[in-house]
Amino acid sequence: MAFVDDEDTITERAAQRWATAQPPRLAKIKAALVRHLHAFARKVRITEAELADAFAWPAAVGHAGDGKRQKFALASDLLGLSTLVVQLNNRLQDGGTPPTLLGPSTWWFSRSPSRPRRVRRPPGRPSFITGTVTDTQGCPVPDAVLDVWHADSDGKYEARIAGADGAPTPQAWGHRSRVRGRAD
């Protein structure tokens, strides 16, 4: 970074580093993050030693991952950020169900297989889930997608059942699926 005259010029210079990030919305978000972090540092008058201690935590979270699970997403949950983002982007309508997170491995859902309503399950005690998805007027929501996940009879979730390469095994996918509801 170029020479900085004083503690007030560093913030805008750092924020400008993100001016060309793509997409443009990401550029705005990253610049705002820089400004808020700098405001936080000023407010609490953080020391160099405290900053080093603060960086140790996300570094440890990153090193805790094993390629099968995204540990930094769990850190977002601990900070309450994941819940806040869900709440901000899914405002509750009168009579509606409050928005919730999909669980500690939300990122995995994008890889969950779509299944017919009736599927063969892995060994163990079977579960049967039934219900109706309606809008706030009580009308069925056609083609609603339900993300379903549960543990096996040993209490393990699919991330703990992955194969040696880290990919989910057929047994693992028996515990997570996306099911599309009927029109009624």
Strand content: 5-15%
The biggest sheet amounts to:
3 strands, mixed
* Low-confidence residue ranges: 104-109
**Strand element count:** 3
Structural class: mainly alpha
**Largest beta sheet: what is the strand line-up?**
1-3-2
Order of helices and strands: HHHHHEEHE
Radius of gyration: 22 Å
Distance between the termini: 60 Å
Outline: extended
Give an account of the 3D structure.
The protein is mainly alpha-helical and 184 residues long. The protein has a domain at 102-184. It is built from six helices and three strands. It has a three-stranded mixed beta sheet, with no helix packed on it. The chain is extended, with a radius of gyration of 22 Å.
Concise account of the structure shown:
With 184 residues, this protein is mostly helical.
Mind sketching the topology for me?
Layout: H1 9-16, H2 24-44, H3 48-64, H4 71-78, H5 81-89, E1 114-115, E2 145-149, H6 170-173, E3 176-180
Parallel strand pairs: 1-3
Antiparallel strand pairs: 2-3
